[in-house]
Backbone:
């Protein structure tokens, strides 16, 4: 039996894996004991990688839909027909008629997004979309606005950890382990979340009304400044805009924040004092509660400012600038701006803008044909028919397509809608970039080679190769000269300072750089002023407030009292479950035994209001849609709040969402703080 050291590409943790292979078949997996992150452990889904590889829903060969039914087709014919149709649509509507979509960073592999972007450049469309356009990028952007770069959390050295809307035990389990280790060693823990998670019971807990976290952050600044707890040396030497901030937060007293958030003023003061007076403090914010609502970007800005005024930037245990591996850039220039460039200028016109368009405009443009028709859509490594917010709008949009291609290892809900489905192999069947190279909550300049474990099953191919072969069919061969995984990896690492030989000699991974604390003393910050910008003049130039403020969720009792009479509860969507990643692996018998179905978390007070008992089937309804789901009655969620997980086809939370409800600063679709009601079905 061979043991191959690789990493797990299910999520961005990229844990080290020992893969046991016998006669060309993956038999079992274990964690690599010497891996710096997972230290020999794997999460439940990581332990079931053979179930992923040998899933009964695997696509075996390319298929084309004929008269509503899929028929087998050869690779040559499939790519030839797709290429010819793309050329026809380009001539008829222009290159921008093609939109491409990839999954999130961890599940896509670096190569998938890189080759997707290379293909879109060769074709000429600006409309490359990525899950980050509705998920994570506002966190990065908020820090770039403030610091000119993206410092990441380093909780392993923190003495005070603030988990803000984050449940690492379910989403980033190694972070949960690190937090628990730090608390055991004496670190203080503060959790701010409408859901009382198990880890929150290890410290101070604040339970806010969803969508009001920005007000709490501003009130904490009020306390820190009023009580003279801010880091005067750092603020005086290395920040700008403190005078404006000081005046701005005077209105945000803890008492005012209490009326907004329902968190008692005394608790806000207690949290602010503990955070400001503990040397080496670190905010770890979540994604769903913190990014995907009406005030997401500005709330993330508030966290950056809190870290700055307490001097917790580029110091051990704070937010630290982590070196980034410089992989080769495969992108080709595109002249036209992507959708959202004018509508959401902060997302697209700030320093180092993302390469993708505003996802909130993608499906609306498919439906309306404005500002131009999107008639071709290629999705790779994702399942947007199930995971994209506002499922009904997505379904309406794809009806207008003239070409819909889905590239994925499995037949998914998205694949069922497509004209062509192309079988991609999993990360276990190809060699590529492993060890998430940009760091999240770990701040480790570490990378490894994701080694192929088995040969691609059936007729599946690496996604980078599918894009390449399609490009060659269309006459773009000069842009796609690579033929093997190793050739691609060698090219990508050519600019990194790391060689394939080094990675072969160290299959557990290597460090490609070294962290440097207090980098600002030598380099300053990469902003226009060279300092951390508490107040952002550039944001005001682009038409938005230069300092964060509280913005009510669009469907709250304050903003829309008439709607709330009909839909009196507050919906949270997308809470993570450690057994699954996005919509994947729900066909694993072992994982279904652990977590057999979707459940809506509701407080006993809320349940009693509707006469609902624990375990019964109920309906969750919003103005946009309705789903049936099992009730989980628990005291660990705030009364009046309903939390629904994502990724379940039989209880698809995205049916409940409205893509027209946006954070108008970032363009992100509102996934949380949505008005809902419950219906007792029995």
Residues:
């Amino acid at each position: 039996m061979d043991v191959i050291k690789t990493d797990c590409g299910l999520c961005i943790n990229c844990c080290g894996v020992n893969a046991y292979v016998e006669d060309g078949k993956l038999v079992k997996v274990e964690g690599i004991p010497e891996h710096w992150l997972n230290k020999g452990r794997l999460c439940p889904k990581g332990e079931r990688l053979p179930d992923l590889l040998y899933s009964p829903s695997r696509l075996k060969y390319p298929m084309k839909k004929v008269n509503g039914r899929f028929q087998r087709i050869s690779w040559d014919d499939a790519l030839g027909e797709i290429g010819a149709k793309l050329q026809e649509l380009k001539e008829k509507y222009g290159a921008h008629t093609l939109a491409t979509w990839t999954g999130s960073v961890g599940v896509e592999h670096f190569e998938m997004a890189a080759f997707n972007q290379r293909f879109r450049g060769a074709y000429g469309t600006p409309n490359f979309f990525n899950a980050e356009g509705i998920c994570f990028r506002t966190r990065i952007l908020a820090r770039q606005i403030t610091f000119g770069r993206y410092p990441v959390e380093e909780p392993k050295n923190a003495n005070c950890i603030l988990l803000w809307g984050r449940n690492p035990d379910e989403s980033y389990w190694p972070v949960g382990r690190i937090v628990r280790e730090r608390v055991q060693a004496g670190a203080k823990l503060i959790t701010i979340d409408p859901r009382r998670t198990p880890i929150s019971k290890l410290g101070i807990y604040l339970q806010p009304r969803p969508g009001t976290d920005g007000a709490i952050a501003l009130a904490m600044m009020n306390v820190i400044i009023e009580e003279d707890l801010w880091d005067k040396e750092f603020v005086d030497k290395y920040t700008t805009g403190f005078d404006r901030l000081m005046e701005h937060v005077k209105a945000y007293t803890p008492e005012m924040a209490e009326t907004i958030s329902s968190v008692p003023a005394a608790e806000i003061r207690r949290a602010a004092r503990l955070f400001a007076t503990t040397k080496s403090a670190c905010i770890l914010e979540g994604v769903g509660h913190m990014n995907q609502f009406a005030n997401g970007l500005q709330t993330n800005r508030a966290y950056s400012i809190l870290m700055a005024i307490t001097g917790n930037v580029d110091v051990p245990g704070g937010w630290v600038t982590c070196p980034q591996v410089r992989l080769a850039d495969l992108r080709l220039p595109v002249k036209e701006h992507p959708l959202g460039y004018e509508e959401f200028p902060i997302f697209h016109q700030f320093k180092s803008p993302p390469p993708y368009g505003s996802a909130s405009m993608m499906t609306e443009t498919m439906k309306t044909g404005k500002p131009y028709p999107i008639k071709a859509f290629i999705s790779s490594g994702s399942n947007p028919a199930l995971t994209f917010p506002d499922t009904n709008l997505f379904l309406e949009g794809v009806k207008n397509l003239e070409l819909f291609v889905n590239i994925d290892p499995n037949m998914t809900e998205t694949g069922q809608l497509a004209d062509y489905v192309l079988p991609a192999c999993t990360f276990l069947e190809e060699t590529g970039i492993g060890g998430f190279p940009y760091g999240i909550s770990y701040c480790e300049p570490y990378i490894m080679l994701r080694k192929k474990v088995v040969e691609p099953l059936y007729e599946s191919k690496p996604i980078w190769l599918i894009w390449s072969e399609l490009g060659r069919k269309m006459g773009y061969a000069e842009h796609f000269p690579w033929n093997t995984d190793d050739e691609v990896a060698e090219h990508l690492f050519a600019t990194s300072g790391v060689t394939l030989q080094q990675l072969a000699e160290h299959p557990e991974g290597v460090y490609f750089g070294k962290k440097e604390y207090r980098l600002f003393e030598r380099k300053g910050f990469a902003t226009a002023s060279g300092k951390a910008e508490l107040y952002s003049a550039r944001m005001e130039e682009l038409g938005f407030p230069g300092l964060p403020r509280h913005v009510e969720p669009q469907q709250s009792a304050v903003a829309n009292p008439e709607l709330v009479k009909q839909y009196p509860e507050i919906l949270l969507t997308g809470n993570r479950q450690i057994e699954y990643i996005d919509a994947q692996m729900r066909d694993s018998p072992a994982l279904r035994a652990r977590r057999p179905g979707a459940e809506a978390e509701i407080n006993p007070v809320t349940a009693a209001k509707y006469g609902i008992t624990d375990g019964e089937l109920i309906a969750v309804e919003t103005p946009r849609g309705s789903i049936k789901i099992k009730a989980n009655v628990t005291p660990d969620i705030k009364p009046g709040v309903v939390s629904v997980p994502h990724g379940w086809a039989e209880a698809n939370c995205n049916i409940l969402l409205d893509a027209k409800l946006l954070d108008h600063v970032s363009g992100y679709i509102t996934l949380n703080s949505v008005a809902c009601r419950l219906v007792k079905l029995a």
Notes: The chain has a mean pLDDT of 94.
